[in-house]
Amino acid sequence: MVSTSETPVRPDRLFDLVTGFPPDDAIDLVVPVPLSLAIYMTMLESTGHAAPVAALRKIHDHEASVTARAVQATVGFVHGPDGPEPARLALAHVVEERVPRVNGVRPHLHVYVGGTAVALADGRRAPIDIDLLAARADSDLFPDHRDRLATASAERLGLVWGEASAGSLEILEPAWLAERAGQLLRDGEPFCPGPFARRRVVAGERHLRRVGEELRDAPGP
User: Fold this and answer.
1) Taking 90 as the threshold, does the pLDDT of residue 166 lie above it?
2) DSSP secondary structure letters along 59-115
């Protein structure tokens, strides 16, 4: 959370998840998981391995909540006359496990961020810094979320992670998981459009698109 004078700032609630809708100017910040993890969960689910699937769902739910809480500290800024200024955001998050028209399990997080926020310095309401949000979603939120998932699943389920597919972090054993993830990245795996039609920012999208492009350009065997 954003801090001033060591006092943490808690975000406001953007909308009620049961009865409400995000405002029209909200940003849908999508945070995906590594594709090899999604493929592994799909395989476990389809072969009746309920216990490890449940364990991985619990891990993802926990790390998604951690990432959602980190949004205030990471991107809690509005435009100011001299650059980004710390602000209190309005947030709500949803964890989903499926992507429309995509087969299999695809766990991901939606964090809805209000298009305006309250500047901490003077209490004025101003537009959030969307460029900063997009940049820090790529540089901070996406890798932190991914790395925590890898660490937790390695510790609790013994999954072996490492660099694969031109730089993406994937499960390396069995090898076909990373290979299949590479195929999907090369083909352009779609991101979830979200339950609400709002402007979307996908954390890590530029990295994942670059990996896909490098795989498409790589010479064949």
Assistant:
1) no
2) HHHHHHHHHHHHHHHHH-EEEETTEEEEEE-EEEEEEES--TT--S---EEEEEE-S
